[in-house]
Amino acid sequence: MADKLIIVESPAKANTIKKFLGGNIKVVASMGHIRDLPKSKLGVNVENDFEPEYINIRGKGDLIKSLKKEAKKAKKIYLATDPDREGEAIAWHLANILKEETDKITRVTFNEITKSAVKKAIQEPREIDANLVDAQQARRVLDRIVGYKISPLLWKKVRRGLSAGRVQSVAVKLIVDREEEIEKFIPEEYWNIYANLQEKETKKQFEAKFYGKDGKKQKIHNKEQVDEILKEIEKAKYIVQEVKRGEKKRTPAPPFTTSTMQQEASRKLGFTLKKTMSIAQGLYEGVKIPEKGAVGLITYMRTDSTRISEEARLAAKTHIVSTYGENYYENRYYRTKKDSQDAHEGIRPTYSELEPDSIKDSLTKDQYKLYQLIYNRFMASQMAAAVYNTMSVTINANDYNFKANGQSIKFKGFMTLYVEGIDGKEKEKEGMLPELKEKQELKLEKINPKQSFTEPPPRYTEASLVKALEERGIGRPSTYSPTITTILERRYIEKEQKQLIPTELGKIVNKLLTENFTDVINIEFTAKIEDEFDEIAEGKEEWKKMLRVFYTPFEKELEKVEKELEHIELVEEVSDTPCEKCGRMMVYKYGRYGKFLACPGYPECKNAKPIIETIDIPCPKCGATVQVRKTKRKRNYYICENNPEKCDYISWNKPKKGEKWDPEEAKEIEKETKKVSQKKTNKKTTSKRKQTKKK
User: Fold this and answer.
1) Which residue out of 78, 238, 300, 551 is catalytically annotated?
2) Model pLDDT for residues 39-74, shown as the tens digit of each residue
């Protein structure tokens, strides 16, 4: 019989905690949530002041029996689920399941799974925080109401299986709005003039860019202006007017928050949000390391704080000074933004002495990459600034001005270890200019006018969408990954390379929702609701009162939209492909696997067929048409239309004219597509067996 029972969410976390605790203590896992709202119905009693109708999650019956059995044996029960609202709610549900043992139950939290943190938490237990639970319930119930009340309208007007959501629909709106900006964008012409100049004594060359006339900046819009300027400076002498020398400091980025970790892992490692969070969860819960057992390598990974504990700060100082030297260390404090939940620290390694390379053999390839990113980012955040020598030069050619800038590293500081990635910006060019003096004449080697056109705003990537959602106050650290995963799975958006592009289905759903639910599917409302959840968590607002205020106008809007949509039929997009069976022009439909062609004469004519995408480059092996297909993981591959009967060409990469084809690549693609086929076959076989048993 255990004196103490500790309940956590996962077996990995349980294994890591066990090794810290001696004595008669048992650690078990709840395997995440054990109770939730039912999937088959709304599960919220709107008439009874929004009372949630929680049920035990299907398949967890045996686990619940086991937890009750262990709870009866224990003298004290510690609910040690994650230190956030979701974790608090899981603890609350566990307490309800184990209500017969209420007098034994207490709550403990720790931001990192280390011996000192776990032991300290057990010595300082507390009550379950009702405010945090209420904030989670408010989010769960409100999102259930929005989703379950609006989604049926999409089923009626578009197709079954679609869903609407307070945050996911706003995320889709951002992507659709950006696509519309790109489509409407009209490029504008502009020109730059570059002068390749030489310093006469050293013969060193450098490039200066046209700035303007008489010290005033001038934009060049067309070739006529270029020709006029070139004519004016045709025989001009290039004289150095001004030389400015100085120093520039670059400070390190703060420790990771959930958002910045997701963005940087996307930029530098090419990880999806879902993959990043899954790997981070494993690093937090514990990894087996020889002679140490299971070790939690990072602090809790769902946080929007950059605060760091004094203990961690001291450990970082010791490591930096011993590894790089005293001049590389700087004690830094980072200001946490106003509306962040500052209960946790930023994401950092739990043990500074566990350098990534020292435990590389204990980690998977992806775990190593993410751990190294987190480790280096944290250490760099406590290091000295990088220092650059800078030089800025203004050069006159008659009345016209050219400018050139140069810089070189004087002291690398934190950049010895880590440099933050940048979205959509050119990296700063390094390299000093030659030693130049005022009134010095330079030799013109070449004048180079260059035509350019303004570009539309870039499409969102997973990283830049997270940044946009965070900047607008939409969602919180725990919601970014599931939100983007959901809209990809629903096929409202698709990914090409890293870019997120709305599908036709996404555009239709977005139009329907934004035109009819303007008070719910908008950025300002969604951000305001997040603030209200925060106020509930702080005990400043009552959660059911917040739902009452929301629901009354929402119900009226819902009734109005239902009536209006009864008389509206969405016009189906007609293709230029005739139906082979009845001659009608086929229409575009949207199914589980995306867009396809179907006969509008259904149910009389049930003809349907996939849309085959092709490219204008012939098969490099036989010259036939190449088709673009997708694996179940939505990865594109290219295959000859004659495959497999006459030609075996298949490749991950888009073929190029004259390209040599690597037949080894075919094995990998065929293996992935066969796996999918085998899974489908297995499902059919299992289904037939079940039917046979029933008979």
Assistant:
1) 300
2) 999 999 999 999 999 999 999 999 999 999 999 999
